[in-house]
Structure formats: structure tokens, C-alpha cells
């Protein structure tokens, strides 16, 4: 009888264990497992994006060259490479991609992937601004205001920075304020602060 009772208890215990085994894929994963899975997915996506940008840039899709520069600069989908970054942005800028010109201007100011050259940076920011890129205008206005890479012209630098601020480019507004060139009668800064709070 004892044997029979033990057998019944063992059978009951094994039956209650079956649902847990059947639901094995529903156990919670650790945070580390989730992070590794997401990182693997992001790497695969970024590798594919980088490959697409390489292919499209080769066909003179200049916006793709700017994206390719971003992949190299940020190390997405492969190794971070500032020399390749500068090459991709230069090709984009040659093709009149305004963002590519602005970002190449930034690289020139820092000397990332190329020789630091403030004169060239100022020229590139101006090209970008002329093509309608607000970040290029902000960079150009800042350099003109400070006299970096060319003659100093506070009035012109302020005008260009204010124009970039007026279009909603916060960095330009912050820079105008930081340079003490801000016109207290202008309400752009208040409008930006109001918009940020919504």
C-alpha cells in the first residue's frame, strides 16, 4: 500500500511538473539576455543599413553618402572610421547635399578624419547654409561672429545666428545667448521655450 501511495504521489508530482516544462519558453529572460538580443538585432540592422548606404552612395545618391558618413562616424554596423567618414561626407558635399557639407565642416573644425582647418570649415558651413541647412548656417554664423577661419564680423555672425534661431534651431539660440549677442526685444527664445514645454 505504501508503494502504491508513493507511486500515486510521484505520478501527481510529475503531472504538475509537465505544464511548467511545456511552458519552458515562457520563463522570464534575464536583463542580460534581453540586452544581448537587442544588441544583436541592432547590429544586424546597422550592418544592413551600412551596406545599403555604401551601395547607394556608389550610385551618386548623395543623401546616402551622408548616411554612410553617419554610419562610419558613429560606428554603426562596423568599425568607427573618421577617415572614411570624411570621405563619405566630402562626396555628399560635392553632390550638394547640405547636411553632408555641414557635417564635413564640423569634422574640419575638430580635425576628425582630416587635418583641422578652420578656413575650410567656415567655407563648408557657408556652402551648407547657402544650400538651406540651418545647422550649417549656425556653424557659419558662429565662426563669423568669433572670427574663426576668416575675418571677424560680429554683426554678420549675429544676423546669421539669429536667422538660424528664428527657424527654431535651439543651438543657435543658445549660442547667441552665450555670446551675449541676443536681442532682448526678440521673442524667438520665448517661443522656443514655450514649444519645448508642450
Characterise the protein shown here.
The protein is built from ten helices and no strands. α2 (31-58) packs antiparallel against α3 (62-74), α3 runs antiparallel to α4 and α8 packs antiparallel against α9 (170-178). The protein starts with a helix and ends with a helix. The chain is globular. The chain has 198 residues and is mostly helical.
What is the CA–CA distance across the termini? 76 Å
In sequence order, what are the helices and strands, one letter per element? HHHHHHHHHH
| Integer average pLDDT | 85
Helicity level = over 70%
Summarize the structure.
With 198 residues, the chain is mainly α.
List the helices and strands and how they pair.
Blueprint: H1 2-22, H2 31-58, H3 62-74, H4 82-94, H5 98-110, H6 118-130, H7 134-146, H8 154-166, H9 170-178, H10 188-196
Q: What attributes characterize this protein structure?
A:
single chain, 10 helices, disordered C terminus, disordered N terminus, mainly alpha, 0% strand, 198 residues, globular
Amino acid at each position: 500500500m505504501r508503494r502504491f501511495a508513493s507511486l500515486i504521489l510521484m505520478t501527481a508530482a510529475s503531472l504538475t511538473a509537465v505544464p511548467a516544462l511545456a511552458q519552458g519558453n515562457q520563463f522570464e529572460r534575464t536583463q542580460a539576455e534581453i540586452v544581448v538580443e537587442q544588441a544583436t538585432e541592432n547590429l544586424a540592422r546597422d550592418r544592413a543599413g551600412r551596406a545599403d548606404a555604401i551601395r547607394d552612395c556608389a550610385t551618386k545618391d548623395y543623401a546616402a553618402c551622408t548616411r554612410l558618413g553617419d554610419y562610419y562616424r558613429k560606428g554603426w554596423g562596423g568599425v568607427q572610421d573618421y577617415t572614411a567618414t570624411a570621405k563619405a561626407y566630402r562626396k555628399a558635399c560635392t553632390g550638394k547635399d547640405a547636411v553632408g557639407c555641414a557635417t564635413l565642416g564640423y569634422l574640419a573644425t575638430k580635425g576628425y578624419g582630416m587635418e583641422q582647418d578652420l578656413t575650410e570649415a567656415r567655407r563648408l558651413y557657408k556652402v551648407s547654409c547657402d544650400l538651406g541647412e540651418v545647422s550649417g548656417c549656425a556653424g557659419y554664423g558662429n565662426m563669423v561672429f568669433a572670427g574663426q577661419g576668416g575675418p571677424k564680423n560680429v554683426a554678420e555672425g549675429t544676423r546669421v545666428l539669429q536667422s538660424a534661431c528664428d527657424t527654431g534651431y535651439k543651438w543657435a539660440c543658445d549660442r547667441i545667448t552665450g555670446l551675449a549677442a541676443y536681442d532682448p526685444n526678440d521673442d524667438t527664445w520665448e517661443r522656443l521655450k514655450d514649444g519645448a514645454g508642450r
